[in-house]
Amino acid sequence: MAKIQKIKKNGDMAMNQEKIHYYIPSSFKSEDLRMFNYWTLQVFGIMDDVTNKQITDDINIFISPNFDCPESWSNMSPIRINLAMDSLLYWAQEVYQLAHEYCHVLINSPYNPQMRDEWFEEVICECASRYVLIKINENELANKLYPEAFINYEETISNRATYAFNTKSLAVETSETLIKLRANHEWREAERYLANKIFPIIVNNDYFWQSIPGLACFKNNNTFMENLNEWYKESPELAKPQVAKIIKLFNDN
After folding, report:
1. Whole-angstrom distance, CA of residue 93 vs CA of residue 188
2. Of 58, 74, 165, 192, which residue is 20 to 30 A from 9 by alpha carbon distance?
3. Bond into 236 cis (ω within 30)
4. What is the distance between the alpha carbons of residues 217 and 214, in angstroms, rounded to a whole number?
5. Is 50 exceeded by the pLDDT of residue 55?
6. Nearest Cα to 102, choosing from 34, 43, 33?
7. What is the mean pLDDT of the chain?
8. Which residues are registered as beta bridge partners of 72?
9. Are 173 and 223 in contact (CB under 8 A)?
10. First-to-last C-alpha distance (Å) of the chain
């Protein structure tokens, strides 16, 4: 892979351009990185602003069609993000994958060992992807070069296959669905179903995103509901109403 770095900065973004480094296959066109980098900065800027948190470490972004799926490692130095893409020109796909992985980076959960309820973080990061796609659709350049494409991609994602279940069942530790989610943190159909329930609660409230670092407080010796309640306690006051509404999806008490 060829390393591409020190691309000219586009606008006054929260993330320092010098902190971002790209690694791409030799078959990719390096000139396509200019716009790819622009959308990267947009994603980082949106997420940094709404979480009120900024990553100051270097970030290495690897893009390849050979990756099985996008991944991130926030415990590495530099931080590493993998994007599974066939082209640098698939901007909506870039935004979707990058927002999800950057959400993980901002939460900075302890992945070694992985907490059993970190599957819930996958749900929130799925919501982050959809939120950023909607936000980035408001960008003037997006409307000029790619009209409605970001919002259409978000709608396509929201309509993908899901596994429907009673969300209240997750309040019971012996729930078959909860057991399966803990065993497979990439059960996308179930996680997408839950994201579809949560997203309407948070889509119009930017303050919610200040709560997501609190997801790193999940503990293995807690029940799922205890972990959610700890998240509520850790959340800033302005984010608490949305977190409380999410908890009510599982338990009315």
Report:
1. 17
2. 74
3. no
4. 6
5. yes
6. 43
7. 91
8. 81
9. yes
10. 53
CB contact at 8 A, 21 and 3: yes
What pLDDT was estimated at residue 34?
93
Q: 189: which residues sit within 8 A by CB, 6+ positions away?
A: 161, 162, 163
Cβ(134)–Cβ(153) under 8 Å? no
> Are 12 and 48 in contact, with CB atoms under 8 Å apart?
no
Residue 7 has pLDDT above 60, yes or no: no
Q: For residue 204, what are the CA distances in angstroms to 24, 120, 131, 140?
A: 35, 21, 9, 20
Q: Are strands 2-5 and 20-24 parallel, antiparallel or unpaired?
A: antiparallel
HSE, side-chain direction, 13 A CA sphere, residue 180: 11
Give residue 114's pLDDT band: very low, low, confident or very high (50, 70, 90).
confident
Burial code of 96-129, b = ≥16 C-beta within 10 A, e = fewer? bbbbbbbbbbbbbbeeeeebbbbbbbbbbbbbbb
Six-digit token pair at 165?
């279940």
Strands (E), 77-204: 79-84
The tokens describing 138, both together, are 């408001």
Is 113 in contact with 95 (CB distance < 8 Å)?
no
Residue 162: which of 199, 133, 187 has the closest Cα?
187
Distance CA 3, CA 25 (A): 9
Q: What is the dihedral of CA 31, 35, 40, 41, to 10 degrees?
A: 110
Distance separating alpha carbons of residues 28 and 83, to the nearest angstrom? 14
Confidence of residue 13 (pLDDT cuts 50, 70, 90): very low
Strand partners, 2: 24
The CA distance from 90 to 42, in Å, is 15
